[in-house]
Design a protein that fits this description.
240 residues; 86% helix; rod-shaped; mainly alpha
Length: 240
């Protein structure tokens, strides 16, 4: 008795299930087509040529930061073993050997000491002027070296601003070309303008921080090396 009743109702049940599932099946492809792109791909698509330049500057800045971390530190500018060796040679008055050490291993310390040793036999004032001038020259070289970070930090937001102006020009061009403009027509130019501004700031902020860090490191190392060299040559000072 029950089997014929179920069989007679089965087509109606099948139609009901199909009606319930139809909206879900129709929504699935729509969700795939309207899926938002990733933030990174979205930035790349809207950055344009100016964004590419900012990206290249960021890679260059990263390479400079890594190189500065390796080279601008006290152990590289004034290696401890060279300090001990030069001090020992000064104590033994082996100044020619000290000159050879300075020529064999050039660095901030040895270049400064070598300049003073080259004036041996002259008055202390002449020796002092020689090593102080070389000390200042070495410090200037280091400041010039880290100056590229300062340049990148300054140029990056300016490029971002250039991209902003370019995007706004495109946006107003759309407004001028069409009698009626929809928000979608303007979104592309405005979005590109904002993306380049963001990229410029993303590069400039950390690069500025790194530049200040290395600038302080150069100043500190320069002061320490200046004190070491002055102590070495103080023995040549003549009391009058």
């Amino acid at each position: 008795m029950n089997v014929p009743s179920f069989a007679s109702r089965f087509p109606t049940l099948l139609v009901s299930v199909g009606a319930l599932c139809a909206p879900l099946l129709a929504a699935a492809p729509q969700e795939e087509t309207t899926a938002k792109p990733s933030m990174l791909s979205d930035i790349v698509d809207n950055a344009g040529f100016i964004g590419l330049i900012i990206g290249i500057l960021s890679i260059l800045a990263l390479a400079l930061v890594i190189e500065h971390f390796m080279s601008i530190k006290r152990d590289k500018l004034a290696p401890p073993h060279l300090i001990d060796e030069i001090e020992a040679l000064f104590e033994e008055q082996k100044f020619q050997e000290a000159v050879e050490v300075c020529e064999a291993e050039p660095c901030f310390l040895t270049n400064t000491v070598g300049a003073g040793l080259a004036k041996l036999g002259h008055s202390y004032e002449t020796i002092q002027v020689a090593y102080e001038e070389m000390h200042d020259e070495e410090e200037i070289k280091l400041h010039q070296k880290i100056g590229w970070l300062s340049l990148i930090a300054a140029v990056s937001p300016m490029l971002g601003l250039l991209g902003t102006v370019n995007g706004m020009i495109d946006t107003f061009g759309e407004i001028a070309a069409k009698p009626s403009v929809k928000p979608n027509d303007l979104a592309g130019g405005i979005k590109g303008a904002l993306v380049t501004t963001m990229l410029g700031l993303i590069v400039a902020i950390p690069v500025t921080a790194c530049f200040v860090f290395f600038k302080n490191r150069v100043v500190l190392a320069s002061l320490e090396i200046g004190a070491i060299v002055e102590e070495l040559f103080d023995r040549f000072r003549t009391a009058k």
